[in-house]
Amino acid sequence: xxxxxxxxxxxxxxxxxxxxxxxxxxxxxxxxxxxxxxxxxxxxxxxxxxxxxxxxxxxxxxxxxxxxxxxx
Length: 72
Prior knowledge:
Layout: E1 3-9, E2 19-23, H1 38-47, E3 51-55, E4 68-70
Parallel strand pairs: 1-3
Antiparallel strand pairs: 1-2, 3-4
C-alpha cells in the first residue's frame, strides 16, 4: 500500500497550522483540498486505500523516516 503524507500547512514555517494537505512521496498533492484536522485527513486517505503518514515534527522532510508515523 502506498504512503500518503499529511503535511501541516503552511509548509516550512514554525507558525500555527492552518490545515493539512495530502501529498504523495514525490510531493504531488493527492487532492487540492485543505483538511482542517489530521483525523479528517486520515479518514480520506484510508477511504482511498492508501497508508496515512502523520508528521511528528512541524517542519517536515519526506526523506527522513523519523519525521513520520504510520497511522493504523
